[in-house]
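ok, trying the design again with the full structure, not the truncated one.
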């Protein structure tokens, strides 16, 4: 059991639910012993009890009628504000107003944002759910947490029987790795907080309701080259301002650099800030060598310090690898079996990389029409439970399980109002943003925070709106990314460095499209 590991390795307790949090109505949670061990901070605010890991950002502000809180970090590329306290104080002026969500949509970051007003606790996550979060009511107490397993440890929850069956399915680890569908967590008592939903817990009737607040406004696709170029420049300017804020906000920001288009564009957005940044790459598998060579070439050209971390082929020599791996698995709630090289990478980076934040290029895939590329398609079937199931996993060999997932997604699509989303935000892209990123991405980022904090300059709803104005064919081809890169750093663009992800090759996409088509045709 994980308690045995932590009893004999007290210094590793800091990694248990690292950078995590818990907000609850329960006043009787003990702070000593497992899982907090007296290290987490307890703060009572507006009738809620907040427990925060020593490395978790927690901010709150109040006026006569409401309290706003933020767990994680946020910055605003439109007001150029990096102080969460100032952001929340301004947000208080908009609580209950028609423009509340307009202000929320300006924020970039990795966070849970909440408002306590009267008997209600409202909460939402960042645009792509990079801050993993779950909620639920257990024995008449409300819980909101970064880690489902944390609530399970405190309340003695057991893994849901359906989840236990699903994670044993032979194809569960395939297609993006292990993660749960819809808004499931490992425990029936808890649900995942889905991006772009405003949740409200009412302490009087002890219910949790949610409603969609984004995206609900129609977009006009770019009508000509001039409008397209203006859109590209406006989006790129948001990325550039976000990089300026990252450099101001953290003392030692590092960019994870590869030869891929996402990472290249992030690096281009840092143009003008290179003297304040460090770049790094890692080599944990032979296929990563080409990315490392590309990263070194780019960093050298722009005089950015670059470090290569070589992850050993086995755990020999890594300090207490098995114990650290056990903690990571416990933090994840045992729903995703990590590859050994990924676990070794976490342990190496935590021990050797001095960054206080990694500027990571995830989230960009949402506006790159990832599922279209992955399956080699220029179009997708219309919104349906079957579409969401086929994007989630392959169930050709187990039709009973396929139908169970269909039923799950049927309820999910209805409950989370996907039919109300305007046509310019395709269902496949919204699935990627709210299911894949929200479930798989948030889970993985929580795991990666074992090493350092992580931020994403793409994780902004106003930026998404601009990119979804770009014609789909340009998003599939990555033309919009290349054009942003050219605008942000022409020299980097002229270098012509681009390493194509092996998952994006034409042969692989055609093969996957065949599987996707068969999976769509089967009853």
């Amino acid at each position: 059991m994980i308690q045995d590991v932590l009893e004999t390795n007290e210094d590793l307790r800091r990694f248990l639910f690292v950078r995590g949090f818990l907000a609850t109505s329960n006043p009787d949670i003990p702070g000593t012993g497992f899982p907090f061990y007296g290290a987490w901070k307890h703060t009572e605010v507006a009738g809620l009890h907040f427990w925060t890991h020593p490395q978790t950002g927690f901010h709150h502000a109040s006026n006569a009628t409401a309290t706003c809180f933020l767990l994680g970090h946020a910055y605003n590329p439109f007001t150029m504000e990096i102080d969460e306290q100032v952001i929340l104080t301004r947000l208080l002026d908009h609580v209950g107003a028609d423009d509340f969500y307009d202000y929320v949509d300006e924020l970039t970051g990795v966070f849970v944002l909440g408002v306590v007003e009267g008997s209600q606790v409202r909460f939402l996550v960042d645009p792509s759910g990079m801050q993993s979060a779950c909620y639920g009511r257990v024995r008449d107490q409300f819980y909101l947490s970064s880690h489902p397993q944390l609530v399970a440890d405190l309340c003695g929850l057991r893994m849901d029987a359906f989840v236990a069956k699903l994670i044993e399915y032979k194809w569960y680890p395939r297609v993006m790795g292990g993660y749960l569908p819809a808004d499931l967590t490992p425990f029936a008592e808890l649900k995942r907080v889905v991006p772009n939903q405003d949740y409200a817990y009412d302490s009087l009737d002890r219910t949790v309701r949610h409603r969609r607040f984004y995206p609900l406004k129609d977009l006009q696709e770019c009508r000509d080259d001039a409008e397209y170029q203006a859109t590209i420049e406006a989006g790129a300017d948001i990325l550039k301002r976000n990089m300026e804020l990252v450099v101001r906000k953290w003392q030692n920001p590092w960019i994870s650099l590869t030869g891929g288009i996402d990472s290249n564009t992030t690096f281009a957005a840092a143009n003008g800030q290179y003297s304040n940044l460090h770049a790094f790459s890692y080599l944990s598998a032979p296929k990563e060598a080409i990315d490392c060579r590309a990263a070194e070439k780019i960093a050298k050209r722009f005089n950015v310090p670059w470090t290569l971390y070589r992850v050993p082929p086995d755990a020999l020599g890594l300090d207490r690898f098995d114990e650290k791996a056990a903690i990571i698995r416990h933090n994840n709630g045992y729903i995703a079996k990590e590859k050994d090289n990924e676990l070794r990478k976490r342990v190496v980076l935590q021990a050797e990389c001095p960054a206080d934040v990694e500027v990571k290029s995830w989230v960009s895939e949402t506006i790159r029409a990832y599922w279209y590329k992955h399956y080699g398609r220029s179009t997708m079937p219309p919104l349906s439970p079957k579409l969401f199931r086929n994007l989630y996993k392959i169930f050709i060999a187990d039709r009973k399980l396929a139908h169970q997932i269909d039923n799950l997604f049927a309820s999910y699509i209805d409950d989370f109002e996907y039919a109300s989303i305007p046509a310019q935000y395709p269902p496949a892209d919204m699935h990627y943003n709210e299911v894949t990123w929200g479930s798989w991405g948030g889970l993985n980022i929580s795991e990666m925070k074992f090493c350092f904090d992580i931020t994403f300059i793409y994780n902004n709803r106003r930026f998404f709106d601009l990119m979804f104005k770009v014609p789909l064919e340009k998003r599939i081809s990555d033309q919009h990314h290349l054009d942003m890169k050219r605008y942000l750093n022409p020299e980097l663009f002229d270098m012509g460095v681009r390493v194509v992800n092996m998952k994006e090759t034409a042969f692989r996409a055609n093969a996957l499209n065949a599987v996707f088509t068969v999976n769509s045709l089967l009853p």
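Keeping the full-length input from now on. The chain has a mean pLDDT of 96.
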